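Two proteins, back to back. First:
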Amino acid sequence: MEKKKVRIYGAGGHSQVVREILEDNGYEITHTFDDKPENSHFATKKLAGGAREDLSKFPHEGDPVIIAVGKNDDRAEIANFLKCDFVSAIHETAIIAKSATIDVGTVVIAGAIINPNSKIGKHVLINTAASVGHDCIVGDYAHISPKAALCGHVEVGEGSQVGVGAVVIPKVKIGKWCTVGAGAVVIRDVPDYSILVGNPGKVIKTIKKPKI
């Protein structure tokens, strides 16, 4: 049986993880694109320049693409830039409830758990051993870091990152483009564009909306 084909945008460390998930799922990687291919973490004959600054140079037609870029605003910018179909990558050891939904371009890494009735947006990264409780909503381009835990009915806004080992208690809403620091415990809602750290979590800074 002929393998499914996919192109990868991104050639750094995160790309290696995504690449192995795709290959284990029976995909053939036909090309790997990057803005700076000379800085790639791995060598491949299929590496080609991405030319993000010039839409006309990117081969939009062809095999579908997955964006293997860890930085949320970069991933969002690239997704808005590309005019092609996208695929997701879900590790075989991830546990996904039947009633959970995952939109296109999302990556779910080894040991992650997504519980019933949760909704995961486009181009989201659910990292190693992260846990998404029941009835959660995770917005487009968000990142739930390794071993972070969202309890039930949590909402994470577009582009936000929940740091390594952080815990978000039930029914808390995290706004758009927020950063929750590693190990933080979030016990109340977090406004858009906030940086929160500590236990209990406190907002220490407000950032500007990213240009994407």
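And the second protein:
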Amino acid sequence: MHRFYLQQELNKEILIVKDRSLVHQIKDVLKIRKGEQVVFFSDAPEYLGFDFTFELKNIEAGSAAFMPREKLENRRESSKKLVLYQSLIKKDKFEWVLEKATEVGVAEIVPMISARSEKKSINIPRCQITLKEAAEQSGRAIIPKLQNEISFEKAILMAQNSGHKTYFADVSEKENMVRGAGDKHTNLFIGPEGGWEEREIFSAQRANSEIISLGRLTLRSETAAVIASYTLLWG
């Protein structure tokens, strides 16, 4: 069943959707017909954590009418919260990280400009679309929060001030691979393709971050982000 994020009141006897792009997707792209059911969800406080099933009653250009059928609790979210501090990498790879981080359950993503970052900025509106579509597809109850780009120095300070455990991923021969942590709230730092500079590793250590390894093989930044995130959330 198709799922859609909708910023509207969902506890209604008749739900009228007037978002033209969404109506176009339902009518012309997915070709959903009268009598078929879809699921809407929202991260508004009164709807958070629930999926709302509606039946399509009528659809025309620019408008669709739905009747409510079922309200179910969404229990797919991890009991842990992970904030991913991701160094900026090439656009297509960064967007892949956004998609997969959403799928594995990351709660918040902080784009970070580290010394060897290949990019210095991101297209926030485009990234928001990627997050929304990934949340719809994967069954998430929320869309991960996306912060604006910040420097590495500000990111380290932000993580330190959060008061939560911070893991700093780096290539290492040591057997200190990341494991599923018992912490309910953690921060994870992932470096760029060129790796961290020594001063960045020193800054992380000084901020009481735990330096962890993802094994003896050198992983791409986007691969490391997904593997480490999944392990911390579900391992």
